[in-house]
Amino acid sequence: MTLKDKIAVVTGAASGIGSAIAGKLAEAGAVVIVADVQVDKGQARAAALCAAGHRAHFIEVDLTDPDSIGTFAQTVHTRFAAVDVLVNGAGWGRTAPFWEGTPEFWTRLIALNLVGPMHLSKALLPPMMERGGGHIVNIASDAGRVGSLGETVYSGAKGGLIAFTKALARETARYGIHVNCVCPGPTDTPLMAAVPDKVKEALTKAIPMRRLGRPEEVADAVLFFAGDGASYVTGQVLSVSGGLTMAG
Fold first, then answer.
1. Which domains, and CATH codes, for the chain?
2. Does pLDDT of 5 surpass 80?
3. Which of 20, 83, 135, 235 could cross-link 169 (Cys pair, CB 3.0–4.6 Å)?
């Protein structure tokens, strides 16, 4: 798989799954734009990729702020012209009963996990359409496919991202643009580190492969969707969950 000289934007690339995705795309030859609201960590991730012999740049973006997204897109188009690969990887959630949530928390959750990717996709799409090609890979969650206890609004947002993926794929196929979705299951990330051990043990027992996923395994799925190997694939949803969720 080669992405030599392709321009790839990865949001949420400062840590966790996004960081692993940035690494995989860079190793495949892409020029990676590390996009994150965490400036210090984002700059450090881009610097680490460059130190490893890859090409990477950090550009700050807040996916909950449409103005920040607009500024980000303008900067990207000024410096790199059209984007070849967009990975909407930024996301966040918190486990708690639905009735304990607040409208303010719901708004933030939906902004980051659904509305932000919509804004960014719209901002970066026109040059892709003019050129006649590109790949968008949305990182949703198996919570959006089958629901997740204590993550009701998060599940709803990720379910929306899955539906957005399929609809956008239909609209943009005529322009040679591929839009697909990767749904991680429980994955060993910094966010998972904050989960109580008993919960992680229960999750591990429920997974047929009897372990948590690794960020690099999610990144492998993204790499497939981002390359020519997926030239006849669009509007698809791939679960990377060790067999935890096998529903259609």
1. 7-240 (3.40.50.720)
2. yes
3. 235
